[in-house]
Write a sequence for this structure.
């Protein structure tokens, strides 16, 4: 969380060629409704674009929406891009269709939480609050 701005800032992005965008819009609205500032990077972004936006926007959490099956390629590349910028401490959460075995691998490699389709927005908001130690 930025020292000058007490509001939590979350970067949401859909990396890769996935065009399923309804879920990320629902998450964005739920976060905004709870007082969290959302920076939505949009669809079909690259791992480097995610890392660059995280740096420029000084976000507290990165949320990735991936329904294309590219999670085992895209998420590690984003983690690597963040490391190259010295931003490896920004928590990452991922929403999408992620098989349990892949979810465990992603968590072992730095992802904080995985949210499958149908999860409650209260869970997502609570996770962001927990990751940022805020309780608004």
């Amino acid at each position: 969380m930025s020292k000058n701005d007490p509001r939590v800032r979350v970067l949401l992005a859909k990396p890769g060629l996935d065009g399923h965008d309804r879920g990320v819009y629902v998450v964005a609205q739920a976060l905004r409704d709870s007082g969290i500032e959302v920076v939505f990077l949009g669809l079909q972004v690259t791992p480097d674009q995610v890392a660059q936006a995280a740096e420029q926007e000084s976000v507290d959490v990165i949320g990735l929406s991936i329904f294309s099956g590219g999670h085992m390629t895209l998420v590690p590349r984003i983690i690597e891009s963040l490391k190259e910028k010295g931003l490896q401490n920004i928590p990452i959460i991922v929403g999408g269709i992620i098989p349990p075995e892949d979810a465990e691998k992603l968590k072992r490699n730095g992802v904080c939480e995985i949210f499958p389709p149908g999860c409650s927005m209260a869970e997502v908001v609570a996770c962001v609050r927990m990751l940022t130690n805020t309780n608004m």
The chain is about 45% helix and 25% strand. Strands lie at 9-15, 37-45, 61-66, 92-96, 111-115. The longest strand covers residues 37-45. Residues 1-5 have pLDDT under 50 and may be disordered.
